Structures are given as C-alpha cells and as structure tokens.
Fold this sequence. Notes:
The complex is a heterodimer.
Chain A: E1 2-3, H1 5-24, H2 27-51, E2 54-60, E3 64-65, E4 69-78, E5 85-91, E6 99-104, E7 109-117, E8 122-125, E9 128-133, E10 140-147, E11 151-155, H3 162-165, E12 174-180, E13 186-191, H4 203-209, E14 213-222, E15 224-229, H5 236-240, H6 247-272, E16 276-280, E17 285-289, H7 291-304, E18 322-327, E19 342-345
Chain B: H1 3-21, H2 28-31, H3 37-46, H4 53-74, H5 77-92, H6 99-119, H7 123-148, H8 157-177
Helix pairs in contact in B: 1-3, 1-5, 1-6, 1-7, 4-5, 5-6, 6-7, 7-8
Amino acid sequence: MRPxxxxxxxxxxxxxxxxxxxxxxxxxxxxxxxxMLSFMFISLVVLKINLSRxxxxxxxxxPVFAGDKSYLRITLTNGKKFIPSYSVRISGPGVAEAYYFxxxxxxxSVMGKMDMIFPRRGLFSYGDxxxxxxxxxxxxxxxxxxxxxxxxxxxxxxxxxDRAVGLLPAGTGRGIAKSAGLSxxxxxxxxxxxxxxxxxxHWKASAKAEGLIVREYGExxxxxxTLLVDNLDNGMIRRSTHRRKxxxxxxxxxxxxxxxxxxxxxxxxxxxxxxxxxxxxxxKVIPFGSGDEHLLKILDIxxxxxxxxxxxxxxxxxxxxxxxxxxPSSARSSAFNLAGTMVVYADTL
Amino acid sequence: xxxxxxxxTFVLALxxxxxxVISGELNPLMTLGGLALLPGYYGFLRYGRHAPGxxxxxxxxxxxxxxxxxxxxxxxxxxxxxxxTIVFQAIKSFDIKEPWDHLQVYFVSLLQLIIASELTHxxxxxxxxxxxxxxxxxxxxxxHFLKEGGLGKVGTARxxxxxxxxxxxxxxxxxxxxxxxxFRFLARGHLRGIKxxxxxxRVDFGSFGEVKLDPTVVMRI
Lengths: 349, 221
C-alpha cells in the first residue's frame, strides 16, 4: 500500500493542520483535523477490505500462439458475503493493458476479456496476477498478488513460409482417382461383365439402355504427407561446445525454435490443401489425419517439443505420400536420412 | 465530465467562501471579487468553458497585488489571506479543466474553513462544516471514479452514503480522542474575546469597553 501524489499532499496538509490545531487550541481546527484523519483511516481500511477475498480465474478463449495477441477471459470473484468491491484493476505477465472492473457484487463473479501476448511457446501456468485499487479516495493505492488458476498451452508462432511453399506441392490434395475402386462415389457406368457384383447393377440406366448396366465406383485416393521434425540434439554446433552458453548455441536455439514454427506452418499448409498429414519427431508420432482438429493435435505436440538426446522413431520408407523433413540448421545433417525426402532448413528461411 | 461532479465542486467552493463571509470579520469591499464565482461556475456548469490562460494569469497577479496592498493597509495579514482565498476561488471558477483542478478547489475550500474557524464561533459555521464534510466525501469518491474511468458506469449513491456515515463516525471519534494541550508555541489565535459588561466587587465608572449585544436587562435603576 502506498500513497498517491494526491495522498502525499493530503498527508502534508493534515500535518500542517495538526500543528495549527495544537497551536491555536481551536476546536473547529481540531474538527477539520479529525475529518482529515478519518479520511486517511477510511482510505486504509476500506482499501484493505476492498481487495480482500478476491480471486482470479483465467482462461484462454481461442488457441494461443506465441507472439500473437490473444484474448483471455478473466473471472474475478468476490468472496465477501456482504461487502461489494469497487474499482479493481487486474494486470498480469504479458498483459498489454490492465483490465478495469468497476463493481464486483458480494459473493458473485464478474467477467472480462484481457489482451495478452505470450513471448514463446510452451505450457504456462498463469502465475501471479496483480489486483490494484485506490478505492474509495485517491489518497492511497494498493496492489496485491493473486495466483491465476489454470494453465495455457501456447502454440509456436506460425510463420509466413512463402519461400518454402514454392518448393512444396500445390493444388488440392484430395481427389477421385481415374481408376475403379471401392469408394462410395460413382466413377462411371458401363455394361455388365461376367463376374460383376449384381448389387452394382444400375436398374434405371439398364431399363433405358435395354441391357444390364453396372455402376463403377471410384477409388478415393487421399494424398498424404509426412512431416519429419528433426529435434535430435546431436548437431555439429552442439557437439563442438562443452557448455550450452555462447552465441553459437544461442543461434542454434533460435534456429530450433524457428524449426518448430516452420514445422507447424508447413503442417497447416498441407492440411489447408486437404492433405492427410503425419508428423514424426524423435520421440512421438502423430498418425495421419486431416482438418483443423488434427492441426491442433500437431500444434499440441509442437508446443512442447524439446531437443532429444536420441531418436527412437526410425521411419520405414513406406512410400506413403510425400515426405518433408524440417531441420534447424543447414550446418548439420538431418536425423532422418531417407531417400527422396525434401529437406527444409529453418535457418535459411 | 459528469454534471454531478461539477456541481459538487461548485457547492464546495461556495461553502468555503460562505464560511468566511458569515464570520462577519471580512471587509465587504475586498470580498466583492468573490461574486465572480457565480458567472464562473455558470459557464463551467452550463457550457464547460474556461478562460484563456493569459487572462487567468493576469487576474492572479492582480489578486496578489491587491493582497499585498490589503495586508499593508489593514496590517492584518490573516484577513488579507482570507480575502485572497475568496478571490482565488473566483478566478479558479474560470479555469477548471482537469480532475486535479477540482482537488485544488477542495483544498482552498478547506483552507477557507480553517481560516473561518479562527474568525468565528458561530453555530452557522458548524452547519456549513457538516455540509462541507458530506460534499467533500462525495467529491473524493467521485474523483476516484473519474480518475479510474469508472464514473457513470456504477451507482455511486450507496458507497458515498456508506463512506459518509463512516467518515462522520470516525471524525467524531477522532475529535473526542485527540488530546488537547495548553501549550501555544507559535502565535495566539486571531479570534479576540468579546468584552461584556458585568460587575466585580469594584466598578470603575468612566471606563470603556465593548458591550455584548444581549437583550437581557442587567440592571434597573
């Protein structure tokens, strides 16, 4: 609790009036002094009560990306049964501007939205938020720490990968192949041949053609992409230095973070084009999948990915779609040595 | 800026000046400038306008010059300060722009009440003091919301009422609890006792003194 600029002046004035009261012995001056003292006392007590038993809950509304402005839903709860709280500001780590609550009724919660920027990816507990108030007057201001309940997973920043996109395949990923198959979509109709399944006869078309006509179904051929995220910590730079400190390793760390961001961006690029994407890291594999939900699964892994000492996933050359390997630095070789793999060096983008 | 806040500022300024005027100790000629308070606050309340800076500065300098002359001629600096505060309140009524300006008005009003408390023991002053106290609490709470940007977004009647009552209670408590001392170390109070007629064992005819205005018959011959 500290006095404001106005509070300091008020305190000084009260001191002078105290001197005047003692010097003159005038009861009216004593009355004014008493008024000023009661102002200071009430400031102290009401401010203390105003901030007591307040708790904060924080929740991210949408996926949170490192470096991007994200909106957090804050719930401020007044635990006091009978006394409301007025004029409370909340701020926290990474908060651009403190949020102001005018009134919090007793025993109730109020909600607000706050802008926040997380500087890097990872799992963050919300940590200490501070609640600040100067109510009821402008003489004192108090700030208290409250622990925000909950955690937030911050995804890596998604980058503009235009330079890499030029090398990646374009066009839609999913289509019906020009060959017969077993999908549900009709590819063509043709005359009945011996051995055809009777259930495939198209009776309406057969009546028109005065002969048996069968439906031929197309094969739904899904284009697949495998993304190899090279998080093996055996780079040339890493090996050449004893400790991790130093500009070279700082550079490597930055390149590693960029690799994570590039991986997420490439995965999004493929998914947007309708590809089924699989992500393989040194320790984890996310099977083929598509759509926005699959992107979030991939980003979940990328948000927490770290350098590994060894690589467990030796990917068999199964030839399922195309394979792209993302490596932090062009100064080292990829952990996944597969023939026909396109390699993207994050530090060159 | 809400009209309520402006109105409270006006009434506080008026209460401070009224406290001084009802003491009856001021020179009416020197307080005439205080009448400018009315057009000043009218313009502020109605249109929110204020005078140009150069005009305020010019009038302030003139007020200081008059104060010096007043103190020199009357040889009573205390009363000259009282006159000056009234004139300053009037000038300030043309120059209220920021929240801090309101606080300056409150402070000058408080100063006026302190001066008035030295000039009078009238009961009317006590009434003004109570009005002043209630309005000051209101103004201080409103100024808080104004500073934080919450004024107009929340009902202020309840907190103001609760804090005013609490303030009244605490003021009485402090007033009773603060110890008084008989020591006067800087100067004596400005208020002189009123001489009144009366009798002791010995009466000197032909002596002079002020007669207290009292309709009670003291002697029939």
